[in-house]
Amino acid sequence: MVELYGKRFTRREIEAASGGLSHAAGVRLMELSNGQERGNRMLEFRSGSGLRFTVLLDRCMDIADCEHNGRAIGWHSPAGFRHPSLSEYEGEGGLGWMRSFSGLMVTCGLDHILFMNEVPTDSYVYGPRKTASHSLHGRAGTLPAHLTGYGERWEGDRCFLWAEGVVTQSAVFGEHLELHRRIEIEVGSDEIRLSDRVVNRGFYRTPHMYCYHVNVGHPVLEDGARYLAPIAETVWAAHQDSYQAQGVGYRSLTGPRIDFHEQVWQHEMVADEAGEVPVALVNDRLGLGFMVVTRKDQFPCQYEWQNLQSGQYALGIEPSTNHVLGNLVARERGEMIWLNHGEERAYDSRFTILPDADAIAGAEARIRAIHGQPDTDYPQPTGNFRRIEDRQ
């Protein structure tokens, strides 16, 4: 049954009350029409629980806005939700990606993530192109999707809102990768389900790297917010040579700072018996949190990104297919994913709103039952980048 307004309804009762579901929940297609956002197609989801989020069809079907009962969850950067035609992927020495960096979730990939690298392209068998110069985090996040369907689906008295689309990254004498994405939420719930498949439609052997840049903003992020995760060890910190200089550790967050330099960690996470890794940011003052659940066999690596700079304030939860060491090192270590024609990789994730203190307590108990986390804000990075197996 559908749970709305503190009551459970059958489909018949919903239709009797209002003729349909749209007064309480639904998914609808719209288009932004002003400023640098102009022309972006967007799907708006309302689950009926107080959860509202939008999906940018022209930006990889990534999640832009996200709020619960009027309280923002997702990050809005000054860059805004620019139309992809304004993107300059190769610009600014490979950092042009940052001019389109905003929203709850930004997809990184499909053949490159992390910082800029120039990599060999022998597998594309084209003499004039010896190498490829990759910019920050790859091309996927500003590629438009082909929307293949959206709407509501009833299974008896349960209702699900959904959308599906295909994002294509391709070039002549280069890669031909497709991202098949499905986003779904049950009416009355606070959990977004994301199902991705990355498929090689081409006939060249093609590298594949993948990461979700999940960005939580104010008010979930504020002074005193806590990062919760089942951490076996902290592997790496970008700032470890000046580890405590800014006075912000990995687990307790502060308010916005002037002249804050981003901090990034890689943590080695422990999965539960089902192979899942839950990571959360929680705000005990508000009784509000956000949890990301991924699979360890799909995303073996996890980064934590802190951008506490005033005006750009965000905390990033970043599940990844590869260590933070980058594209070239992934090749050297034999950890690059290589896809031949028709081969694919699947990614199944859940984003859950923690709407009150009980939900936060439940999430924290679940995480602690899997594994504890370092009890110091500045755990010593081990440098132990564990081998990622079964890569071809």
Summarize the structure in words.
With 392 residues, this protein is mainly β. It has three helices and 25 strands. The strands form six sheets. An eight-stranded antiparallel sheet has the order 11-12-13-14-25-21-20-17. A six-stranded antiparallel sheet has the order 8-16-23-22-19-18, with no helix packed on it. It has a five-stranded antiparallel sheet with strand order 3-4-5-6-7, with no helix packed on it. β11 and β12 (158-170) form a beta hairpin. The longest helix has 14 residues, at 357-370. The chain is globular, with a radius of gyration of 21 Å. The termini are far apart. The model has no long low-confidence stretch (mean pLDDT 96).
What is Rg? 21 Å
Helix segment tally = 3
**Mass-distribution shape:** globular
Instruction: List the uncertain runs.
Output: none
Round the mean pLDDT to the nearest integer and report it: 96
Count of β-strands: 25
Work out the strand percent. Answer: 35-45%
Helix content: under 10%
User: What strand order characterises the main sheet?
Assistant: 11-12-13-14-25-21-20-17
- Backbone structural class: mainly beta
- How would a crystallographer describe the biggest sheet? 8 strands, antiparallel
Order of helices and strands: EEHEEEEEEEEEEEEEEEEEEEEEHEEH
Query: How far apart are the termini?
Result: 45 Å
